[in-house]
Structure prediction request, 289 residues.
Amino acid sequence: MAITYDLVKEVTANLYDWSLRRIPESSKAEFRKALATETEPQARQTLAFMLDSAERAETTGKFLCSDAGVPSYSIKIGSGARMEGDIRQAIVDGFAELTRTIQPPLLRFVTNPLTNERSFHGKDMPLVSWDLVGEGDYLDITCAPKALGGGRWAAVEILVSPSLDEIERCILEIVLRAGGQHCPPVVIGVGVGGTFDHAAKLSKDATLRPFGERNPEPMVADMEERLTRAVNQMGFGPMGVGGATTTFGVHIEYASGHGFTPVAVSFNCWINRRTRARIYNSGVVERIE
Prediction:
């Protein structure tokens, strides 16, 4: 058997729909932990409101935020996967059909950057990145729509032979520039090394890691903990109202490269939209998140 056009079309459309109506379980757990430790009254009130909104959206099936963003997919392809039909077009067609049928209707967030014309369609839409992985007989698909909070404040800086202190200072300066405007508490993804585009991709991938999963390399995990503490000491707090809960975690990935070292920082807003499923050659669909 093979992974078909029809199956990819259905699954990718469903992943986007689901991502608009709930937040990941690991995010809800972080909200509950933050409510137990946050001491600023307004910050606690904001966190409680966010958690309540998430639970209401989940039970009623309504959108959690009016800004649905644009669909963005990260697809990992097992080298044993067999595909039938135009899989890229299946994602395009699934999104197009969803915009015609989804309730409540989506606003027109897909924007031509040269004319500012808004639509449900556009060049390169949906945004899809592809990676080959291992020997699996599946497509592993993560949908993480990008709206203003999760996309506006990302940045890349190119450093030359930096020390670790200089890399960390660069990350914190980018976070300071963003302030509380990315709808915190957020997950902050960092990509270090490789090339300009590779570092940016690493930082986006880092935002997709569930909370509580540290980088397996102790030095990087220590860096994640150190930067998480530093960001929360900035005092922006949930939705920028002040407090100690600006981020639930800084996630870092890195790649080897040349002496020039790109440092990329991405943000996911408090909703932390992320849904994931795996389609096997057999036609079985495994919902992972």
Notes: The chain is about 40% helix and 25% strand.
